[in-house]
Amino acid sequence: MSVKDATPKEASSPFWELLKVQGKLALREPMGLVFGIALPLILLLIFGNIPTFNEPIEGNSFTLFKLYIPILMVTVLIFIGLFGLPIPLLRDREIGWLRRISTTPISPTKLLAAQTVIYLILAAVGYTIVMAGSILIFGVELAFNISGFILALVLATLAMFSLGLLITAVAPSQSTGNGITMALLYPLLFFAGVYVPIQVLPSGLQTAALFTPVGAAVNALNSSMNGSFPSFVSLAVMAAYAAVFGFVAIRYFRWE
Predict the structure, then answer these.
(1) What is the mean pLDDT of residues 244-252?
(2) What is the pLDDT of residues 81-110, one digit of tens each?
(3) Is 231 exposed, middle or buried (0-12, 13-18, 19+ CB in 10 A)?
(4) Who contacts 105 (Cβ-Cβ below 8 Å, separation ≥6)?
(5) Is the pLDDT of residue 251 over 70?
(6) How many domains in the chain?
(7) What is the pLDDT of residues 125-165, one digit of tens each?
(8) In the structure, what pLDDT confidence band is assigned to residue 181 with cuts at 50, 70 and 90?
(9) DSSP letters for the chain
(10) What is the pTM of this model?
(11) 224: domain range?
(12) Which of 112, 148, 155, 204 ranks highest by number of CB atoms within 10 Å?
């Protein structure tokens, strides 16, 4: 009598299962999702349908709407970095889940990695919506410097995600984290140029904006989307913020 070999179905990896769980949680608490993706899309549709935004700026060949494309991309990062990434981690730490999960095969480090991957995906979706909508719906012509664009986008993402992790590290509770994010939100939106594009601010504020992570990101993305490689200063500013925020976040991050 022969015995038929049976190969059990390979189980999904613990990290993949964790990734699916975190993805479902992100959809259930959609603060980062709604504001990180829906708000830039709404602003894109509003700005794209304002006639004066589609007229060339005096003395320049580009339109005000074109200036807002990198601003909207950075807006995606602001909301995901401030709300999407830190708030769920603060909640999980406050209810003790981070401490409990450390006793399972899923280490807290893997939890943090899964959370970051989820919001990287959401950020990529937000970038794609803004870019595709600008080009396909409103016919904006962009002359990409591909290497400069990718480098600027990577550094901008690192800087804002590091800020989110920094908030997670220093905030003792979810309510405190909410307070910190709200205190940072409006200055970051201002220096990103959401209210008024950086290019039309007074010279002093323009300089100050370029030394913020969001202002440097907008400047670098704007240059790369118009065919030029971003300035060293903009790239260095974003890299410095990413390094400092990341170092402090790692140094003071607490799992319980």
Answers:
(1) 89
(2) 888 888 888 887 888 777 776 666 666 667
(3) middle
(4) 14
(5) yes
(6) 1
(7) 888 888 888 888 888 888 889 999 999 999 999 999 999 98
(8) very high
(9) -------PPPPPPHHHHHHHHHHHHHHHSTHHHIIIIIHHHHHHHHHHT-GGGGSBPTTSSSBHHHHHHHHHHHHHHHHIIIIITHHHHHHHHHTTHHHHHTTSSS-HHHHHHHHHHHHHHHHHHHHHHHHHIIIIIT----B--HHHHHHHHHHHHHHHHHHHHHHHHH-SSHHHHHHHHHHHHHHHHHHHTSSS-GGGS-HHHHHHHHTSHHHHHHHHHHHHTBTSPPPHHHHHHHHHHHHHHHHHHHHH----
(10) 0.85
(11) 15-50+61-252
(12) 155
140 in Cβ contact with 65 (< 8 Å): yes
In a domain, 113, yes or no: yes
Q: Is 9 a member of any domain?
A: no
Structure-block tokens of residue 131 = 């870019």
Residue at 10 is within a domain: no
